[in-house]
Amino acid sequence: MAKTSPSRAAGRALAWLAALVVGLTAILGIGVASGQAGWAPKLALDLEGGTQMVLAPQTASGEQATPEQLGQAVEIIRQRVDGSGVAEAEVATQGDQNVVVSLPGVPDEDTRRLIQASADLQFRPVLQAAPGEPTPEDQLLPKEQFPAPSAEPSDAYDSNWLTPDLADEFQRTDCAVPRDPGAAPMPADRAVVACQPAEETPAGAAPAIKYVLGPVVVSGTEVDGAQPGLAQTSGGVSTNQWGVNVDFTDEGARAFQAVTQRLTPMPAGDPRKQFAMVLDGRVISAPSSNAVITGGSARIDGPSFTEQSANQLAEQLNYGSLPISFTIESEQQISATLGEDQLRWGLIAGLIGLALVALYQFFQYRALGLLTFASILVMGLMTYLAIAILGWTDNYRLSLAGIAGLIVAIGLTADSFIVYFERIKDELRAGRPVEAAVHEGWKRAQRTITASKAVNLLAALVLYFVAVGNVRGFAFTLGLTAIADLIVVFLFTHPLMVLLAQGDFVGRGHRMSGLDPRQLGVDSALYRGAGQVREPRPAVASAPTSDVRPGRRRGRGEPALTIAERRRAERARAADPAARRPADTQEDAS
Asked: In terms of pTM, does the model score above 0.90?
């Protein structure tokens, strides 16, 4: 198979980069055309301002929240409103009573409900189920017609929980009416009526269902973690069926094992075979128990699960362990903590840094400095598009700390080009022509560049996961630019360097190209490339070999020394120590 020529490979790499930039631009253009995105990145609270809400906690028992609970509330709310850590939301306690949430821009109703919602997750047995519509008035049974409980309920699964009052409430419940978010939390020690709202599934619309639920048998605080994923067969083959894997704490594992031991023997189709997961008074899932779970790990799946619904359920289970709801005590618009001046000066600082890097690169590498400058501009364009797209898809907000990460990235990006160009210079000093030097220099430089960017990316990831707030924004932009830098070096800088090496300006080592052999201490007349050197010329009689020191340039009109002549002169000087000093003195005085 014929090898692809360097110029063709370089052209393909540049074409891939162009396709990537066009693709990112098209994606952002779709968001702008649909009115969901803008060409400019979203700004964080410190640069744009936003909304500040003071939340008052309300526990299920009606008691005052403890400092530990408030601390947990801060973390849960931060995860809810800023799960990725890049929206730059600020969540903190105010004294020992309230939680203050500051969000960029104006939060929508879904965000408000998410903040206020109780995180009281409960696992309850199902005692009775019916469609979510209310019973028509002409078919309602009077409470007197429902039998009174024959005895006190013995456990959470006892049908004696169904009192006449609860049965009447169950008849009248309409699941189309959303539950009042300000309603009191459901009592954990009594039976309740709850709804599972209607939803769209791959099989079609799933109607709403209402349940009579027994007391809580497993608390949400016993959920150790939940992850969405595809089901697999015993042979490890994916079934393309989404579900949620749930892990319990040790105490939760024992409680959940007791639940599955009680429900599994129930006949298929009996609603009492189900247990309901209730969050904020709403049933989020009511699976049947098909096996006794003894290891503390369970999987919830079914034909109605999609990737989106599995992710949603996993998130609800993960963040539903805090038994506190919140009411908004006050809400006000706040101005940017830093504002346009700091943004402008941050951008000016970035431009100054870019100018200094470009000036140094031009001074050190002449015309190759323009290649460095162009590469940084391409990297900046890709990063800009990525940030704007992430603002649309993941609510990424650019803060001043994020801008600082972009400024630092300019210097880190320039390091990649310095490593590459210095490798090329090393190959030129070894006697290779420019094209071969570019090829061999890249083989050595790409390993160093890849290792360097891997370290940068690892540092950014560690900083991102161990920090909160603005520091995560700094780490995010630092990691994003490290990836963009690798893409640009491989798909733009090196391919363009290959093409430039085939031209006369760079390929022949023009004095302004940055690869002039004479500026590197190498005379281009001394080598032919591929390891070949010119045949040595006869030595001039008036200039004994012992008087010629390696690296000495001869007088005007004399032929330049070849590599072989230099080496022969060095061997002669090594064999005649007495001739070294006079020769040196004669040369220095000439």
From this structure: no
